[in-house]
Design goal:
Blueprint (H helix, E strand, L loop, with lengths): L8 H25 L2 H54 L5 H83 L3 H13 L6 E5 L2 E2 L8 H9 L4 E2 L6 E3 L1 H14 L2
Parallel strand pairs: 1-4
Antiparallel strand pairs: 1-2, 3-4
Helix pairs in contact: 1-3, 1-6, 2-3
Length: about 260
Amino acid sequence: MAKKKEITVEEKLRALYDLQLIDSRIDEIRSVRGELPLEVEDLEDDIAGLNTRLSNLSEDVANLETDISNKKLAIEESKSLMKKYEEQQKKVRNNREFDSLSKEIEYQELEIQLSEKRIREFNVKIEQKKEVIDTTQEKLDKQQQHLEHKKSELDAILKETEKEEKALISKSEEFSKTIDKHLLNAYKRIRSKVKNGLAVVSIERGASGGSFFTIPPQVQLEIATRKKITIDEHSGRILVDAALAAEEKEKIAHMFA
């Protein structure tokens, strides 16, 4: 049985730097997209909320209109009763019966006045609700236009970058499989902690990429031998020499050309 070939430190460093280059390009694509997906999501939530509000307001208006109809029916009923009591008054035999019917008529008059008052109040409420409906509808229309604009903006960016992003993600997964689990976890951990997502950087002008802290010459020589994984003591990033970085950049550029 053939012995499995051992992966050298240099091969590990190259694989890590390749993975970094691919992941950085994915980051670039996503930063171009920026906050747009979240903006679209927020606008959709806002629109859903406004639609719910409109629905509730319309329901309130419908309920008030039902209340008005019921009060109008109550008025007609009271008028009918008054007519009935007035007819009965013509046939009474004594004052006591007449006074009793008069009180019933007065009561129905009060009921009519109260119903009319309630109808006026309901109409005022309907007008107020309709004003809020108009304002809400206006806001909803504006938000709909804003959403359409943001969606078309996002769609245009997605159309441009979707194919490349899919290819990069596929390559990122492929390269991740070539790196041993311990090293890959370290890479992911460093990447999650740093702002720009750079876990593997090359030495530039005697310092680690993006840092102002100079790396001692002896350490630089060790990194150039590619015999061990070196972590920058200031930034916590994995370091590679400039020559290896340049070779891998060229390789990845050709891969995605």
